[in-house]
Amino acid sequence: MNILVTGGAGYIGSHTCVELLGEGFEVVVLDNLCNSSEESLERVEKITGKKLKFYKGDILDTEFLDRVFTENKIDGVIHFAGLKAVGESVKLPLMYYQNNVEGTVKLCLAMQKHGVKNIVFSSSATVYGKNEPPLSEKLPTGDCSNPYGRTKYFIEEILKDIYVSDNEWNIVLLRYFNPIGAHESGLIGEDPNGIPNNLMPYISQVAIGKLPKLNIFGNDYDTPDGTCIRDYIHVVDLAKGHIKAIEKVFEGCGIKTYNLGTGKGYSVMDIVNAFEESTGLKLNYEFAPRRAGDLPSVYSDPSLAEKELDWTAKYSIADMCRDTWNWQSKNPKGYKK
Ligand code: NAD
Ligand code: UFG
């Protein structure tokens, strides 16, 4: 089977390419490299000892998409390509709607034209909005607090409409919780541009001495230690979930939605403590005001993925911290030389 991976040079995409190649799939990556580097794909080949095919280009470019589908017999698509910075999406909503929503529409039009009707989509727990955890797939969605989240919600709805119009499509919507960690080789990992927005890359850049200290956004939430709770998942577990999802698609699943999370919540302080324990380092941190839009507690009910995909997350928080630090310490500048 030949899988087109959009956004495959990125953080989750590159880890998924490793798993796909390991499972014997052929891989074609399409990425405009707006938030990634081709070096990640060279490292994927190094880890697996296998080759993949790379096209540099944009999902907004219809002629380019046509060329990719003409030159390759694609059996299914895993669609990661998208912009994901919450704060930036508030400032530049049109850029987010164009890139994520219009980009997905163009991708699906190209798929339809070439008779490819199998897709796995990277959605996010953010579509659950303010629902009370544990978050199950049955809950209503769409009450998102920012344009980024709404792009995920809108794309889910568009994909549902495509299925209603033509039930030959097989679609899996994957709602990720908080991916962290890196491949155990330390060759690939998360390499954010500029100052990281997310907790784990921020922690690891404080640990390596690139940033002076971590600001913990709020310690007065209604949680056991006052800091926010999230469902952190090792990126390799997440990547393995995509193998199960694309297999489900090839079984002819219709349209399905699954959470990919561990089902366990950890606070910001838990993560700081776990990182210090597994690395032996001391982190410089201080408490700061709450960050606008943060919810006190977000974690999944992962039971549907366990039941229908035969998938559960295996790695612990200690593993996630160890592998993050292994990647960061071996690549202090990320993929930059
Ligand atoms: P990433 O930025 O590392 O990967 C996204 C990739 O898509 C990048 O390589 C980027 O260059 C590429 N891309 C963006 N727009 C493109 C376009 N128009 N054409 C071609 N390529 C384009 O991000 P990631 O963390 O690997 O996330 C992958 C997907 O998972 C995204 O859709 C993201 O919204 C979703 N997601 C991520 C998280 C998270 O916390 N990391 C959580 C939930 C969902
Ligand atoms: N945090 C800090 N300091 C930092 C960064 C984060 O204290 O420097 C805290 C946040 O306040 C939050 C927790 O760490 O309580 C996790 O924050 P992240 O930014 O790492 O993750 P979020 O849960 O806010 O966001 C993630 C994804 C989004 C997605 C969202 C919804 O990054 O893309 O989950 O599920 F939309």
Structural class: alpha/beta
**Bound ligands, each once:** nicotinamide-adenine-dinucleotide, uridine-5'-diphosphate-4-deoxy-4-fluoro-alpha-D-galactose
Order of helices and strands: EHEHEHEHHEHEEHEEEHEEHEHH
What overall form do the CA principal axes indicate?
globular
What is the total tally of β strands? 13
Distance from first to last alpha carbon: 34 Å
CATH homology-level superfamily of the largest domain: NAD(P)-binding Rossmann-like Domain
Flag low-confidence runs: none
Radius of gyration: 19 Å
Q: What value does the average pLDDT take?
A: 98
What is the strand arrangement across the widest sheet? 3-2-1-4-5-6-11
- CATH structural architecture of the largest domain: 3-Layer(aba) Sandwich
Structure description:
The chain has two domains: 2-181 and 232-261, NAD(P)-binding Rossmann-like Domain (Rossmann fold); 199-229 and 264-306 and 316-330, UDP-galactose 4-epimerase, domain 1, CATH 3.90.25. The mean pLDDT is 98. The longest helix is centred in the N-terminal third of the chain and has 21 residues, at 93-113. 41% of the residues lie in helices and 17% in strands. With 337 residues, the chain is an alpha/beta fold. 49% of the residues are buried. The chain starts with a strand and ends in a 7-residue tail after the last helix. Bound molecules: nicotinamide-adenine-dinucleotide and uridine-5'-diphosphate-4-deoxy-4-fluoro-alpha-D-galactose.
